[in-house]
Write a structure and sequence with these properties.
With 337 residues, the chain is an alpha/beta fold. The chain has two domains: 116 residues, Rossmann fold, CATH 3.40.50.720; 174 residues, Dihydrodipicolinate Reductase, domain 2, CATH 3.30.360.10. The protein is built from nine helices and 15 strands.
């Protein structure tokens, strides 16, 4: 494969979340979608119309696509419980793989997938697009500036009104499919989590067959402590970030809008002055950040934070939280090995 030629991609799963890679990559000269795979004919029809690919490029089976189409990479956007199977099909064929979050639903299997990708010498990434959202990039820029101190108390709350379970109908789905986004952001900003304490819960009105909410205390190896909460059963949506350091408080007001409340004198409860706006980063579609980093990994060998290897630290938090909830005790990172 010539380094200046486009990366030829087979798209596995082109409905729902599988639509965005087709939309982005068909217009990106660095990539060339060459095949579409889906078990739902309507999904294939829509993706084919959007991509301009012929009917001969449409398949209902990934192995058939790999056997009949010359490609360099797989983009996997299927239900999470199927990710491992499709990733392995790509590894076995020597293809680079970009898989939607979460990588998989099992800690041991996640480690195995990362080993298998390394053995196949392919660039394996997980589409953790939340870390590229404008509020996270703005927060990262603010923390890197050093102006706002080192946060110690962190609150991250995301109540979601998502009343229909759809594919989230398995134990731990709220963690493997949703909390993985939040945990990836937290690991990206503050490093590995050393210990987790958690409970899972389900509202009386919930249509979910398993707990669709989780509350946790996450203790980071670097010192910060996060109070974390997410649920799919909320009556109204609510998304909150608050970070408190020795110098004051950073609070998200929505999107790229953050405010800074400088700390007052010792024993003075009120802030030292009025809230100040925090400089925002330029807007960019979060999935574009995923694509850009995956491409650099393939072409330049620059391993991004969303690589399968790095994503293990995110999935470690998922595993710790679920073990903590099941065993009703705190779980330390070293217990996972």
């Amino acid at each position: 494969m010539q380094t200046d030629s486009p990366v030829r991609t087979i798209h596995v799963g082109v409905g729902g979340r599988g639509a965005w890679p087709v939309e982005l990559l068909i217009d990106d000269p660095r990539f060339q979608p060459v095949a579409l795979v889906d078990v739902v004919p309507e999904n294939l029809t829509r993706a084919r119309e959007r991509s301009g690919l012929p009917e001969s490029a449409c398949f209902s089976d990934v192995d058939a696509a790999l056997a009949h189409v010359d490609a360099d990479a797989l983009v996997v956007c299927t239900p999470t419980r199927t990710h491992a199977r499709f990733c392995r099909a790509g590894f076995a064929a020597g293809k680079h793989v970009l898989v939607e979050k979460g990588m998989t639903l099992d800690w041991s299997e996640a480690n195995a997938l990362v080993r298998e990708a390394a053995e196949a010498n392919v660039c394996f990434c997980v589409s953790q697009n939340y870390r590229y959202n404008v509020e996270v990039r703005t927060l990262k820029q603010a923390l890197d500036s050093g102006r706002y101190g080192t946060p110690h108390l962190i609150d991250l709350i995301h109540h979601r009104h998502r009343p229909e379970p759809r594919t989230l109908d398995y134990p731990g789905a709220v963690v493997w499919d949703m909390s993985c986004h939040h945990f990836d952001n937290l690991v990206y900003l503050f490093g590995p989590v050393a210990r987790a304490t958690a409970v899972t819960h389900n509202a009386p009105w919930s249509a979910y067959p398993y707990d669709a909410g989780v509350s946790a205390i996450l203790e980071f190896a670097a010192g910060p402590v996060c109070t974390y909460e997410t649920t799919h059963q909320a009556v109204v949506n609510d998304y909150r970030w608050i970070l408190q350091s020795e110098r004051g408080t950073l609070r998200n007001l929505g999107g790229s809008a953050w405010e800074w409340l400088p700390r007052g004198e010792i024993r003075q409860f009120a802030p030292a002055g009025p809230a100040e706006p925090v400089e925002a980063v330029p807007p960019k579609r979060s999935e574009q950040g995923v694509v850009d980093d995956w491409y650099r990994y393939i072409r330049e060998g620059i391993e991004p934070g969303i690589s399968g290897r790095h994503n293990l630290e995110t999935l470690a938090v998922c595993e710790m939280v679920l073990r903590a909830a099941a065993q009703r005790r705190s779980i330390a990172r070293e217990e996972l090995g």
